[in-house]
Design brief:
four-stranded parallel β-sheet; homodimer; alpha/beta; Rossmann fold; globular; 48% helix; six-stranded mixed β-sheet
Protein backbone atom coordinates (compact mmCIF):
# COMPACT_ATOMS: atom_id res chain seq x y z
CA UNK A 1 0.00 0.00 0.00
CA UNK A 2 1.51 3.30 -1.13
CA UNK A 3 0.42 6.18 1.06
CA UNK A 4 0.42 9.46 -0.85
CA UNK A 5 2.60 12.27 0.53
CA UNK A 6 2.39 16.03 0.44
CA UNK A 7 4.83 15.99 -2.46
CA UNK A 8 2.23 14.02 -4.39
CA UNK A 9 -0.30 16.76 -3.58
CA UNK A 10 2.03 19.46 -4.88
CA UNK A 11 2.52 17.51 -8.12
CA UNK A 12 -1.24 16.95 -8.36
CA UNK A 13 -1.90 20.67 -7.91
CA UNK A 14 0.33 21.56 -10.86
CA UNK A 15 -1.06 18.74 -12.94
CA UNK A 16 -4.80 19.30 -12.52
CA UNK A 17 -4.94 23.09 -12.47
CA UNK A 18 -5.42 23.50 -16.26
CA UNK A 19 -8.39 21.11 -16.27
CA UNK A 20 -10.44 22.15 -13.26
CA UNK A 21 -12.14 25.25 -11.89
CA UNK A 22 -10.87 27.15 -8.91
CA UNK A 23 -14.31 26.98 -7.32
CA UNK A 24 -15.72 29.91 -5.37
CA UNK A 25 -16.19 30.04 -1.59
CA UNK A 26 -19.62 31.31 -0.55
CA UNK A 27 -20.61 32.74 2.81
CA UNK A 28 -24.07 33.39 4.22
CA UNK A 29 -25.02 35.79 7.00
CA UNK A 30 -28.14 33.67 7.54
CA UNK A 31 -26.18 30.43 7.97
CA UNK A 32 -23.70 32.09 10.30
CA UNK A 33 -26.49 33.40 12.51
CA UNK A 34 -28.20 30.02 12.45
CA UNK A 35 -25.13 28.03 13.47
CA UNK A 36 -23.21 30.56 15.56
CA UNK A 37 -20.13 29.68 13.50
CA UNK A 38 -18.47 31.42 10.58
CA UNK A 39 -18.98 29.06 7.67
CA UNK A 40 -17.05 29.02 4.39
CA UNK A 41 -18.75 26.87 1.77
CA UNK A 42 -16.28 25.51 -0.79
CA UNK A 43 -18.51 25.07 -3.80
CA UNK A 44 -17.35 22.00 -5.66
CA UNK A 45 -20.88 21.72 -7.04
CA UNK A 46 -19.60 24.35 -9.51
CA UNK A 47 -16.63 22.13 -10.36
CA UNK A 48 -16.10 20.60 -13.83
CA UNK A 49 -18.38 17.55 -14.22
CA UNK A 50 -20.28 18.88 -11.20
CA UNK A 51 -18.19 17.43 -8.37
CA UNK A 52 -14.82 17.47 -6.56
CA UNK A 53 -14.10 14.01 -7.98
CA UNK A 54 -12.69 15.58 -11.12
CA UNK A 55 -9.64 16.59 -9.07
CA UNK A 56 -8.61 13.00 -8.29
CA UNK A 57 -9.69 11.70 -11.69
CA UNK A 58 -7.67 14.35 -13.51
CA UNK A 59 -4.62 13.62 -11.38
CA UNK A 60 -4.85 9.94 -12.28
CA UNK A 61 -5.49 10.52 -15.99
CA UNK A 62 -2.82 13.16 -16.55
CA UNK A 63 -0.25 11.29 -14.46
CA UNK A 64 -0.26 8.31 -16.85
CA UNK A 65 2.63 7.83 -19.26
CA UNK A 66 1.69 8.29 -22.91
CA UNK A 67 1.97 4.55 -23.38
CA UNK A 68 -0.35 3.75 -20.50
CA UNK A 69 -2.72 6.57 -21.39
CA UNK A 70 -3.18 5.28 -24.92
CA UNK A 71 -4.94 2.22 -23.50
CA UNK A 72 -7.42 4.40 -21.64
CA UNK A 73 -8.84 4.29 -18.14
CA UNK A 74 -11.66 2.27 -16.62
CA UNK A 75 -13.96 2.26 -13.61
CA UNK A 76 -17.13 0.59 -12.42
CA UNK A 77 -18.54 3.55 -10.50
CA UNK A 78 -21.67 4.99 -12.03
CA UNK A 79 -21.73 8.19 -10.01
CA UNK A 80 -19.65 11.37 -10.00
CA UNK A 81 -16.40 9.46 -10.34
CA UNK A 82 -17.53 8.02 -13.68
CA UNK A 83 -18.48 11.48 -14.95
CA UNK A 84 -15.21 12.97 -13.71
CA UNK A 85 -13.05 10.22 -15.15
CA UNK A 86 -14.88 10.49 -18.48
CA UNK A 87 -14.35 14.24 -18.49
CA UNK A 88 -10.63 13.98 -17.65
CA UNK A 89 -10.06 11.22 -20.22
CA UNK A 90 -11.86 13.32 -22.80
CA UNK A 91 -9.57 16.27 -22.08
CA UNK A 92 -6.56 13.99 -22.63
CA UNK A 93 -8.16 12.44 -25.69
CA UNK A 94 -8.12 8.86 -24.40
CA UNK A 95 -10.97 6.38 -23.88
CA UNK A 96 -12.75 5.96 -20.55
CA UNK A 97 -14.53 2.65 -20.02
CA UNK A 98 -17.36 2.57 -17.51
CA UNK A 99 -18.95 -0.73 -16.48
CA UNK A 100 -22.55 -0.14 -15.37
CA UNK A 101 -25.49 -2.42 -14.59
CA UNK A 102 -27.91 -2.53 -17.52
CA UNK A 103 -30.60 -1.65 -14.96
CA UNK A 104 -28.97 1.68 -14.06
CA UNK A 105 -31.22 4.71 -14.68
CA UNK A 106 -31.03 5.99 -18.25
CA UNK A 107 -30.26 9.46 -16.88
CA UNK A 108 -27.05 8.13 -15.31
CA UNK A 109 -26.06 6.40 -18.54
CA UNK A 110 -26.81 9.54 -20.53
CA UNK A 111 -24.69 11.62 -18.16
CA UNK A 112 -21.68 9.31 -18.58
CA UNK A 113 -22.14 9.30 -22.36
CA UNK A 114 -22.53 13.06 -22.29
CA UNK A 115 -19.06 13.37 -20.79
CA UNK A 116 -17.65 10.99 -23.41
CA UNK A 117 -17.55 7.76 -21.38
CA UNK A 118 -17.90 4.38 -23.09
CA UNK A 119 -20.40 2.19 -21.25
CA UNK A 120 -20.17 -1.59 -21.06
CA UNK A 121 -23.25 -3.05 -19.43
CA UNK A 122 -23.22 -5.84 -16.85
CA UNK A 123 -25.93 -7.64 -14.94
CA UNK A 124 -26.94 -5.99 -11.67
CA UNK A 125 -24.80 -8.22 -9.45
CA UNK A 126 -21.33 -7.93 -7.97
CA UNK A 127 -20.15 -11.13 -9.69
CA UNK A 128 -21.28 -9.94 -13.11
CA UNK A 129 -19.79 -6.50 -12.54
CA UNK A 130 -16.42 -7.96 -11.58
CA UNK A 131 -16.42 -10.44 -14.47
CA UNK A 132 -17.38 -7.82 -17.06
CA UNK A 133 -14.89 -5.34 -15.64
CA UNK A 134 -12.11 -7.95 -15.87
CA UNK A 135 -13.07 -8.59 -19.50
CA UNK A 136 -12.94 -4.88 -20.34
CA UNK A 137 -9.57 -4.52 -18.70
CA UNK A 138 -8.20 -7.60 -20.44
CA UNK A 139 -9.46 -6.46 -23.83
CA UNK A 140 -8.28 -2.86 -23.54
CA UNK A 141 -5.43 -2.80 -21.02
CA UNK A 142 -7.15 0.26 -19.53
CA UNK A 143 -5.85 1.54 -16.21
CA UNK A 144 -8.27 1.01 -13.32
CA UNK A 145 -8.88 4.22 -11.40
CA UNK A 146 -10.64 3.40 -8.14
CA UNK A 147 -13.11 6.09 -7.03
CA UNK A 148 -11.30 6.66 -3.72
CA UNK A 149 -8.89 3.93 -2.60
CA UNK A 150 -6.14 5.13 -4.93
CA UNK A 151 -3.20 7.33 -3.91
CA UNK A 152 -3.47 9.38 -7.11
CA UNK A 153 -7.13 10.08 -6.40
CA UNK A 154 -6.52 11.03 -2.76
CA UNK A 155 -3.65 13.36 -3.73
CA UNK A 156 -5.97 14.99 -6.27
CA UNK A 157 -8.82 15.48 -3.78
CA UNK A 158 -6.29 17.05 -1.38
CA UNK A 159 -6.04 20.07 -3.70
CA UNK A 160 -9.57 21.09 -2.68
CA UNK A 161 -8.91 21.97 0.97
CA UNK A 162 -5.53 23.43 0.04
CA UNK A 163 -7.31 25.82 -2.31
CA UNK A 164 -9.96 26.58 0.32
CA UNK A 165 -7.35 27.51 2.92
CA UNK A 166 -5.64 29.85 0.46
CA UNK A 167 -8.97 31.47 -0.34
CA UNK A 168 -10.14 32.14 3.23
CA UNK A 169 -6.99 32.26 5.35
CA UNK A 170 -7.05 30.54 8.74
CA UNK A 171 -9.62 27.93 9.62
CA UNK A 172 -10.39 26.20 12.90
CA UNK A 173 -12.11 23.22 11.33
CA UNK A 174 -13.16 21.61 8.07
CA UNK A 175 -16.28 19.46 7.73
CA UNK A 176 -16.67 17.16 4.73
CA UNK A 177 -18.98 14.25 3.92
CA UNK A 178 -17.62 10.75 4.24
CA UNK A 179 -18.50 7.75 2.09
CA UNK A 180 -15.48 5.81 0.91
CA UNK A 181 -13.32 8.53 2.43
CA UNK A 182 -11.54 9.98 -0.62
CA UNK A 183 -12.33 13.63 0.11
CA UNK A 184 -11.73 13.26 3.85
CA UNK A 185 -8.41 11.49 3.22
CA UNK A 186 -7.30 14.23 0.85
CA UNK A 187 -8.31 16.83 3.43
CA UNK A 188 -6.31 15.01 6.12
CA UNK A 189 -3.31 14.74 3.82
CA UNK A 190 -3.35 18.45 2.96
CA UNK A 191 -4.16 19.88 6.38
CA UNK A 192 -1.80 17.64 8.38
CA UNK A 193 0.99 19.14 6.28
CA UNK A 194 0.07 22.79 5.89
CA UNK A 195 -2.23 23.50 8.86
CA UNK A 196 -2.17 20.67 11.40
CA UNK A 197 -4.13 22.83 13.87
CA UNK A 198 -7.27 22.52 11.70
CA UNK A 199 -9.70 19.95 13.14
CA UNK A 200 -11.18 17.65 10.52
CA UNK A 201 -14.72 16.39 11.01
CA UNK A 202 -16.38 13.80 8.80
CA UNK A 203 -20.16 13.97 8.27
CA UNK A 204 -22.08 10.80 7.55
CA UNK A 205 -25.71 9.70 7.10
CA UNK A 206 -26.90 7.79 10.18
CA UNK A 207 -28.37 5.24 7.75
CA UNK A 208 -24.88 4.56 6.36
CA UNK A 209 -22.77 5.17 9.46
CA UNK A 210 -20.14 2.49 8.82
CA UNK A 211 -17.33 5.06 8.96
CA UNK A 212 -18.51 6.36 12.36
CA UNK A 213 -18.73 2.81 13.70
CA UNK A 214 -15.33 1.95 12.19
CA UNK A 215 -13.88 5.06 13.85
CA UNK A 216 -15.20 4.00 17.29
CA UNK A 217 -14.25 0.34 16.83
CA UNK A 218 -10.74 1.04 15.56
CA UNK A 219 -11.07 -1.10 12.46
CA UNK A 220 -13.01 -1.01 9.18
CA UNK A 221 -16.64 -2.07 9.39
CA UNK A 222 -18.18 -2.41 5.92
CA UNK A 223 -21.97 -2.45 5.50
CA UNK A 224 -23.80 -4.16 2.70
CA UNK A 225 -25.82 -1.72 0.60
CA UNK A 226 -27.08 0.81 3.15
CA UNK A 227 -30.06 2.95 2.10
CA UNK A 228 -29.73 6.72 2.27
CA UNK A 229 -30.79 9.76 0.25
CA UNK A 230 -27.11 10.74 0.24
CA UNK A 231 -26.35 8.19 -2.44
CA UNK A 232 -22.73 9.24 -2.87
CA UNK A 233 -22.00 8.09 0.68
CA UNK A 234 -23.04 4.44 0.63
CA UNK A 235 -19.63 2.91 -0.03
CA UNK A 236 -17.31 1.60 2.73
CA UNK A 237 -13.85 2.70 3.79
CA UNK A 238 -10.85 0.82 2.32
CA UNK A 239 -7.31 0.39 3.63
CA UNK A 240 -5.89 3.61 2.20
CA UNK A 241 -8.71 5.88 3.31
CA UNK A 242 -8.87 4.11 6.68
CA UNK A 243 -5.23 5.07 7.19
CA UNK A 244 -6.10 8.76 6.96
CA UNK A 245 -9.41 8.56 8.82
CA UNK A 246 -7.96 6.63 11.74
CA UNK A 247 -4.89 8.88 12.04
CA UNK A 248 -6.14 12.38 11.36
CA UNK A 249 -9.91 12.77 11.74
CA UNK A 250 -11.06 14.53 14.93
CA UNK A 251 -14.55 13.06 14.98
CA UNK A 252 -17.32 11.65 12.77
CA UNK A 253 -20.84 13.05 13.20
CA UNK A 254 -24.03 11.58 11.77
CA UNK A 255 -27.36 12.99 10.61
CA UNK A 256 -30.75 11.40 9.94
CA UNK A 257 -32.38 11.35 6.52
CA UNK A 258 -34.79 14.09 7.58
CA UNK A 259 -31.98 16.27 8.92
CA UNK A 260 -30.04 15.83 5.66
CA UNK A 261 -33.04 16.73 3.50
CA UNK A 262 -33.91 19.75 5.67
CA UNK A 263 -30.32 21.01 5.48
CA UNK A 264 -30.25 20.48 1.71
CA UNK A 265 -33.46 22.41 1.20
CA UNK A 266 -32.28 25.19 3.50
CA UNK A 267 -29.06 25.62 1.50
CA UNK A 268 -30.98 25.69 -1.79
CA UNK A 269 -33.45 28.20 -0.39
CA UNK A 270 -31.08 30.59 1.33
CA UNK A 271 -27.84 30.22 -0.64
CA UNK A 272 -29.44 29.66 -4.07
CA UNK A 273 -27.16 26.81 -5.03
CA UNK A 274 -28.03 23.38 -6.39
CA UNK A 275 -26.16 20.66 -4.49
CA UNK A 276 -26.54 16.98 -3.79
CA UNK A 277 -27.99 15.40 -0.65
CA UNK A 278 -24.47 14.16 0.21
CA UNK A 279 -23.25 17.75 0.26
CA UNK A 280 -25.86 18.73 2.85
CA UNK A 281 -24.67 16.24 5.46
CA UNK A 282 -21.95 18.59 6.80
CA UNK A 283 -24.44 21.40 7.52
CA UNK A 284 -26.89 18.89 9.03
CA UNK A 285 -24.21 17.72 11.48
CA UNK A 286 -23.05 21.27 12.28
CA UNK A 287 -26.63 22.19 13.19
CA UNK A 288 -26.73 19.18 15.56
CA UNK A 289 -23.38 19.97 17.16
CA UNK A 290 -23.47 23.74 17.46
CA UNK A 291 -21.38 23.74 20.64
CA UNK A 292 -18.48 22.15 18.76
CA UNK A 293 -18.44 24.81 16.05
CA UNK A 294 -19.73 27.98 17.78
CA UNK A 295 -17.43 30.97 17.32
CA UNK A 296 -15.16 29.03 14.99
CA UNK A 297 -14.14 29.52 11.37
CA UNK A 298 -15.33 26.39 9.63
CA UNK A 299 -14.76 25.22 6.06
CA UNK A 300 -17.64 23.20 4.61
CA UNK A 301 -16.98 21.11 1.51
CA UNK A 302 -19.96 21.21 -0.86
CA UNK A 303 -18.92 18.10 -2.71
CA UNK A 304 -21.17 18.09 -5.77
CA UNK A 305 -24.24 19.31 -7.59
CA UNK A 306 -25.38 16.39 -9.71
CA UNK A 307 -28.94 15.85 -8.65
CA UNK A 308 -32.06 14.61 -10.39
CA UNK A 309 -34.22 17.73 -10.63
CA UNK A 310 -37.26 15.59 -11.41
CA UNK A 311 -37.01 13.72 -8.13
CA UNK A 312 -36.00 16.02 -5.29
CA UNK A 313 -36.03 14.35 -1.88
CA UNK A 314 -38.42 16.80 -0.24
CA UNK A 315 -40.98 16.04 -2.91
CA UNK A 316 -41.42 12.55 -1.45
CA UNK A 317 -41.87 13.73 2.12
CA UNK B 1 -41.45 63.35 -14.45
CA UNK B 2 -37.84 63.41 -13.27
CA UNK B 3 -35.60 61.23 -15.44
CA UNK B 4 -32.61 59.94 -13.49
CA UNK B 5 -29.16 60.83 -14.84
CA UNK B 6 -25.80 59.11 -14.73
CA UNK B 7 -24.88 61.39 -11.82
CA UNK B 8 -27.73 59.77 -9.92
CA UNK B 9 -26.24 56.37 -10.73
CA UNK B 10 -22.84 57.42 -9.38
CA UNK B 11 -24.46 58.63 -6.16
CA UNK B 12 -26.47 55.41 -5.94
CA UNK B 13 -23.32 53.33 -6.38
CA UNK B 14 -21.65 55.02 -3.40
CA UNK B 15 -24.82 54.87 -1.35
CA UNK B 16 -25.79 51.21 -1.79
CA UNK B 17 -22.36 49.56 -1.81
CA UNK B 18 -22.22 48.95 1.96
CA UNK B 19 -25.59 47.18 1.96
CA UNK B 20 -25.42 44.89 -1.07
CA UNK B 21 -23.25 42.09 -2.43
CA UNK B 22 -20.97 42.51 -5.39
CA UNK B 23 -22.48 39.44 -6.99
CA UNK B 24 -20.35 36.97 -8.94
CA UNK B 25 -20.38 36.50 -12.70
CA UNK B 26 -20.58 32.84 -13.77
CA UNK B 27 -19.64 31.38 -17.13
CA UNK B 28 -20.41 27.95 -18.56
CA UNK B 29 -18.57 26.12 -21.33
CA UNK B 30 -21.74 24.11 -21.89
CA UNK B 31 -23.93 27.20 -22.33
CA UNK B 32 -21.40 28.83 -24.64
CA UNK B 33 -21.31 25.74 -26.86
CA UNK B 34 -25.08 25.51 -26.83
CA UNK B 35 -25.66 29.13 -27.83
CA UNK B 36 -22.56 29.88 -29.90
CA UNK B 37 -22.16 33.06 -27.83
CA UNK B 38 -19.91 33.87 -24.89
CA UNK B 39 -22.32 34.36 -21.99
CA UNK B 40 -21.63 36.13 -18.71
CA UNK B 41 -24.28 35.42 -16.11
CA UNK B 42 -24.56 38.23 -13.56
CA UNK B 43 -25.88 36.35 -10.55
CA UNK B 44 -28.26 38.63 -8.69
CA UNK B 45 -29.91 35.51 -7.34
CA UNK B 46 -27.02 35.62 -4.84
CA UNK B 47 -27.87 39.24 -3.98
CA UNK B 48 -29.11 40.33 -0.53
CA UNK B 49 -32.80 39.44 -0.18
CA UNK B 50 -32.33 37.18 -3.19
CA UNK B 51 -32.78 39.68 -6.03
CA UNK B 52 -31.39 42.76 -7.82
CA UNK B 53 -34.29 44.80 -6.42
CA UNK B 54 -32.33 45.47 -3.27
CA UNK B 55 -30.17 47.85 -5.28
CA UNK B 56 -33.03 50.23 -6.08
CA UNK B 57 -34.70 49.76 -2.71
CA UNK B 58 -31.47 50.56 -0.85
CA UNK B 59 -30.90 53.64 -2.97
CA UNK B 60 -34.38 54.91 -2.10
CA UNK B 61 -34.13 54.08 1.61
CA UNK B 62 -30.65 55.46 2.21
CA UNK B 63 -31.32 58.57 0.12
CA UNK B 64 -34.07 59.75 2.50
CA UNK B 65 -33.39 62.59 4.92
CA UNK B 66 -33.38 61.53 8.57
CA UNK B 67 -36.70 63.28 9.03
CA UNK B 68 -38.33 61.47 6.10
CA UNK B 69 -36.71 58.18 7.00
CA UNK B 70 -38.13 58.28 10.52
CA UNK B 71 -41.61 57.88 9.05
CA UNK B 72 -40.59 54.77 7.21
CA UNK B 73 -41.22 53.51 3.68
CA UNK B 74 -44.17 51.73 2.12
CA UNK B 75 -45.06 49.62 -0.89
CA UNK B 76 -47.83 47.38 -2.15
CA UNK B 77 -45.67 44.91 -4.02
CA UNK B 78 -45.64 41.44 -2.51
CA UNK B 79 -42.69 40.12 -4.48
CA UNK B 80 -38.95 40.75 -4.45
CA UNK B 81 -39.40 44.51 -4.10
CA UNK B 82 -41.21 44.03 -0.79
CA UNK B 83 -38.43 41.78 0.52
CA UNK B 84 -35.76 44.19 -0.70
CA UNK B 85 -37.42 47.27 0.72
CA UNK B 86 -37.94 45.47 4.05
CA UNK B 87 -34.28 44.46 4.08
CA UNK B 88 -33.04 47.97 3.27
CA UNK B 89 -35.37 49.60 5.82
CA UNK B 90 -34.18 47.10 8.41
CA UNK B 91 -30.57 48.04 7.73
CA UNK B 92 -31.46 51.71 8.27
CA UNK B 93 -33.57 50.85 11.31
CA UNK B 94 -36.81 52.32 9.98
CA UNK B 95 -40.22 50.71 9.43
CA UNK B 96 -41.27 49.24 6.09
CA UNK B 97 -45.02 48.94 5.52
CA UNK B 98 -46.20 46.39 2.98
CA UNK B 99 -49.84 46.25 1.89
CA UNK B 100 -50.70 42.72 0.75
CA UNK B 101 -53.95 40.95 -0.09
CA UNK B 102 -55.10 38.75 2.81
CA UNK B 103 -55.31 35.94 0.24
CA UNK B 104 -51.58 36.10 -0.60
CA UNK B 105 -49.72 32.83 0.04
CA UNK B 106 -48.53 32.49 3.64
CA UNK B 107 -45.01 31.79 2.31
CA UNK B 108 -44.91 35.28 0.76
CA UNK B 109 -46.16 36.86 3.98
CA UNK B 110 -43.61 34.91 6.00
CA UNK B 111 -40.82 36.03 3.68
CA UNK B 112 -41.74 39.73 4.09
CA UNK B 113 -41.99 39.31 7.88
CA UNK B 114 -38.68 37.43 7.82
CA UNK B 115 -37.01 40.50 6.36
CA UNK B 116 -38.66 42.73 8.97
CA UNK B 117 -41.55 44.14 6.90
CA UNK B 118 -44.82 45.15 8.58
CA UNK B 119 -47.80 43.75 6.69
CA UNK B 120 -51.18 45.46 6.44
CA UNK B 121 -53.72 43.23 4.77
CA UNK B 122 -56.22 44.37 2.15
CA UNK B 123 -58.93 42.61 0.18
CA UNK B 124 -57.76 41.06 -3.09
CA UNK B 125 -58.92 43.93 -5.31
CA UNK B 126 -57.25 47.01 -6.74
CA UNK B 127 -59.75 49.35 -5.05
CA UNK B 128 -59.15 47.82 -1.62
CA UNK B 129 -55.40 47.82 -2.12
CA UNK B 130 -55.39 51.50 -3.07
CA UNK B 131 -57.70 52.46 -0.21
CA UNK B 132 -55.73 50.53 2.41
CA UNK B 133 -52.43 51.81 1.04
CA UNK B 134 -53.70 55.42 1.27
CA UNK B 135 -54.74 54.78 4.87
CA UNK B 136 -51.31 53.40 5.77
CA UNK B 137 -49.59 56.36 4.16
CA UNK B 138 -51.90 58.86 5.88
CA UNK B 139 -51.39 57.20 9.26
CA UNK B 140 -47.60 56.87 9.02
CA UNK B 141 -46.37 59.44 6.52
CA UNK B 142 -44.25 56.65 5.05
CA UNK B 143 -42.52 57.35 1.75
CA UNK B 144 -43.93 55.34 -1.16
CA UNK B 145 -41.22 53.49 -3.05
CA UNK B 146 -42.65 52.19 -6.32
CA UNK B 147 -41.15 48.86 -7.44
CA UNK B 148 -39.88 50.30 -10.73
CA UNK B 149 -41.41 53.61 -11.84
CA UNK B 150 -39.24 55.65 -9.49
CA UNK B 151 -36.04 57.47 -10.48
CA UNK B 152 -34.30 56.38 -7.26
CA UNK B 153 -35.12 52.76 -8.00
CA UNK B 154 -33.96 52.94 -11.62
CA UNK B 155 -30.70 54.65 -10.61
CA UNK B 156 -30.14 51.85 -8.08
CA UNK B 157 -30.81 49.07 -10.59
CA UNK B 158 -28.34 50.75 -12.96
CA UNK B 159 -25.49 49.77 -10.62
CA UNK B 160 -25.95 46.13 -11.65
CA UNK B 161 -24.86 46.40 -15.29
CA UNK B 162 -22.18 48.91 -14.31
CA UNK B 163 -20.71 46.31 -11.97
CA UNK B 164 -21.06 43.58 -14.60
CA UNK B 165 -19.15 45.62 -17.18
CA UNK B 166 -16.33 46.26 -14.71
CA UNK B 167 -16.18 42.54 -13.91
CA UNK B 168 -16.00 41.22 -17.47
CA UNK B 169 -14.63 44.06 -19.59
CA UNK B 170 -16.19 44.71 -22.98
CA UNK B 171 -19.60 43.39 -23.90
CA UNK B 172 -21.47 43.38 -27.20
CA UNK B 173 -24.90 42.98 -25.64
CA UNK B 174 -26.82 42.65 -22.40
CA UNK B 175 -30.04 40.65 -22.10
CA UNK B 176 -32.32 41.20 -19.12
CA UNK B 177 -35.92 40.24 -18.34
CA UNK B 178 -38.59 42.89 -18.68
CA UNK B 179 -41.69 43.26 -16.56
CA UNK B 180 -42.28 46.80 -15.37
CA UNK B 181 -38.92 47.69 -16.86
CA UNK B 182 -36.91 48.75 -13.80
CA UNK B 183 -33.86 46.57 -14.52
CA UNK B 184 -33.93 47.28 -18.25
CA UNK B 185 -34.25 51.03 -17.60
CA UNK B 186 -31.30 50.94 -15.21
CA UNK B 187 -29.30 49.00 -17.78
CA UNK B 188 -30.14 51.57 -20.47
CA UNK B 189 -29.23 54.42 -18.15
CA UNK B 190 -25.85 52.90 -17.27
CA UNK B 191 -24.83 51.60 -20.70
CA UNK B 192 -25.92 54.66 -22.69
CA UNK B 193 -23.46 56.62 -20.57
CA UNK B 194 -20.47 54.31 -20.16
CA UNK B 195 -20.72 51.93 -23.12
CA UNK B 196 -23.28 53.11 -25.69
CA UNK B 197 -22.05 50.46 -28.15
CA UNK B 198 -23.62 47.70 -26.00
CA UNK B 199 -26.91 46.50 -27.47
CA UNK B 200 -29.64 46.04 -24.87
CA UNK B 201 -32.20 43.31 -25.39
CA UNK B 202 -35.26 42.80 -23.20
CA UNK B 203 -36.62 39.28 -22.70
CA UNK B 204 -40.29 38.77 -22.00
CA UNK B 205 -42.76 35.89 -21.59
CA UNK B 206 -44.96 35.56 -24.68
CA UNK B 207 -47.90 35.22 -22.27
CA UNK B 208 -47.15 38.69 -20.87
CA UNK B 209 -45.72 40.39 -23.96
CA UNK B 210 -47.13 43.85 -23.32
CA UNK B 211 -43.66 45.41 -23.43
CA UNK B 212 -42.91 43.83 -26.83
CA UNK B 213 -46.24 45.04 -28.18
CA UNK B 214 -45.69 48.49 -26.68
CA UNK B 215 -42.24 48.60 -28.30
CA UNK B 216 -43.71 47.81 -31.75
CA UNK B 217 -46.69 50.14 -31.31
CA UNK B 218 -44.66 53.09 -30.04
CA UNK B 219 -46.78 53.61 -26.92
CA UNK B 220 -47.50 51.81 -23.67
CA UNK B 221 -49.92 48.89 -23.90
CA UNK B 222 -50.88 47.59 -20.44
CA UNK B 223 -52.43 44.16 -20.05
CA UNK B 224 -54.75 43.15 -17.28
CA UNK B 225 -53.33 40.32 -15.16
CA UNK B 226 -51.49 38.16 -17.70
CA UNK B 227 -50.72 34.57 -16.65
CA UNK B 228 -47.12 33.38 -16.78
CA UNK B 229 -44.79 31.19 -14.75
CA UNK B 230 -42.41 34.17 -14.72
CA UNK B 231 -44.47 35.88 -12.06
CA UNK B 232 -42.07 38.78 -11.61
CA UNK B 233 -42.80 39.92 -15.16
CA UNK B 234 -46.57 40.43 -15.14
CA UNK B 235 -46.61 44.16 -14.47
CA UNK B 236 -46.87 46.80 -17.21
CA UNK B 237 -44.46 49.55 -18.25
CA UNK B 238 -44.99 53.02 -16.78
CA UNK B 239 -43.98 56.46 -18.07
CA UNK B 240 -40.47 56.48 -16.63
CA UNK B 241 -39.50 52.99 -17.74
CA UNK B 242 -41.16 53.56 -21.11
CA UNK B 243 -38.83 56.52 -21.61
CA UNK B 244 -35.78 54.24 -21.36
CA UNK B 245 -37.29 51.29 -23.23
CA UNK B 246 -38.45 53.39 -26.15
CA UNK B 247 -35.18 55.32 -26.43
CA UNK B 248 -32.46 52.76 -25.74
CA UNK B 249 -33.61 49.15 -26.13
CA UNK B 250 -32.42 47.41 -29.32
CA UNK B 251 -35.16 44.79 -29.38
CA UNK B 252 -37.57 42.81 -27.20
CA UNK B 253 -37.71 39.03 -27.63
CA UNK B 254 -40.33 36.68 -26.24
CA UNK B 255 -40.38 33.05 -25.08
CA UNK B 256 -43.19 30.60 -24.44
CA UNK B 257 -43.91 29.12 -21.03
CA UNK B 258 -42.35 25.81 -22.07
CA UNK B 259 -39.21 27.53 -23.39
CA UNK B 260 -38.87 29.47 -20.13
CA UNK B 261 -39.26 26.35 -17.98
CA UNK B 262 -36.82 24.36 -20.12
CA UNK B 263 -34.24 27.15 -19.92
CA UNK B 264 -34.73 27.42 -16.16
CA UNK B 265 -34.22 23.70 -15.64
CA UNK B 266 -31.19 23.70 -17.92
CA UNK B 267 -29.55 26.47 -15.90
CA UNK B 268 -30.26 24.66 -12.61
CA UNK B 269 -28.93 21.41 -14.03
CA UNK B 270 -25.79 22.64 -15.72
CA UNK B 271 -24.86 25.75 -13.74
CA UNK B 272 -26.03 24.50 -10.32
CA UNK B 273 -27.75 27.72 -9.37
CA UNK B 274 -31.24 28.29 -8.03
CA UNK B 275 -32.97 31.08 -9.91
CA UNK B 276 -36.50 32.21 -10.67
CA UNK B 277 -38.50 31.51 -13.81
CA UNK B 278 -38.23 35.24 -14.66
CA UNK B 279 -34.45 34.92 -14.69
CA UNK B 280 -34.58 32.15 -17.28
CA UNK B 281 -36.36 34.24 -19.90
CA UNK B 282 -33.11 35.80 -21.22
CA UNK B 283 -31.51 32.39 -21.93
CA UNK B 284 -34.78 31.15 -23.46
CA UNK B 285 -34.77 34.07 -25.90
CA UNK B 286 -31.04 33.73 -26.67
CA UNK B 287 -31.63 30.08 -27.60
CA UNK B 288 -34.40 31.18 -29.99
CA UNK B 289 -32.34 33.95 -31.58
CA UNK B 290 -28.90 32.37 -31.84
CA UNK B 291 -28.05 34.29 -35.01
CA UNK B 292 -28.36 37.59 -33.12
CA UNK B 293 -25.92 36.55 -30.39
CA UNK B 294 -23.51 34.11 -32.11
CA UNK B 295 -19.87 35.02 -31.62
CA UNK B 296 -20.76 37.88 -29.28
CA UNK B 297 -19.93 38.62 -25.65
CA UNK B 298 -23.30 38.76 -23.94
CA UNK B 299 -24.16 39.74 -20.38
CA UNK B 300 -27.19 37.91 -18.97
CA UNK B 301 -28.86 39.34 -15.88
CA UNK B 302 -29.97 36.56 -13.53
CA UNK B 303 -32.42 38.75 -11.68
CA UNK B 304 -33.35 36.68 -8.64
CA UNK B 305 -33.47 33.38 -6.83
CA UNK B 306 -36.61 33.50 -4.72
CA UNK B 307 -38.52 30.44 -5.82
CA UNK B 308 -40.91 28.06 -4.08
CA UNK B 309 -38.91 24.83 -3.85
CA UNK B 310 -42.09 22.88 -3.11
CA UNK B 311 -43.68 23.89 -6.37
CA UNK B 312 -41.16 23.92 -9.20
CA UNK B 313 -42.68 24.56 -12.62
CA UNK B 314 -41.36 21.39 -14.27
CA UNK B 315 -43.10 19.33 -11.62
CA UNK B 316 -46.47 20.33 -13.09
CA UNK B 317 -45.57 19.47 -16.69
Amino acid sequence: MYIPTFDDVKVARERVTPYIHKTPVLTSTFMNKLTGAELFFKCENFQKAGAFKVRGASNAVFGLSDEMAAKGVATHSSGNHALSLSYAAGRRGIPCHVVMPRTAPQAKKDAVIGYGGIITECEPSTSSREAVFAEVQAATGADFVHPYNDPRVIAGQATCSLELLEQVGDLDAIVAPIGGGGMISGTCLAMSNVAPEVSIYAAEPLNADDAARSFRAGHIIADDAPETVADGLKVPLKDLTWHFVSNHVTDIFTATEEEIIDAMKLIWKRMKIVMEPSSAVPLATILKNKDVFAGKRVGVIVTGGNVDLDSLPWMDK
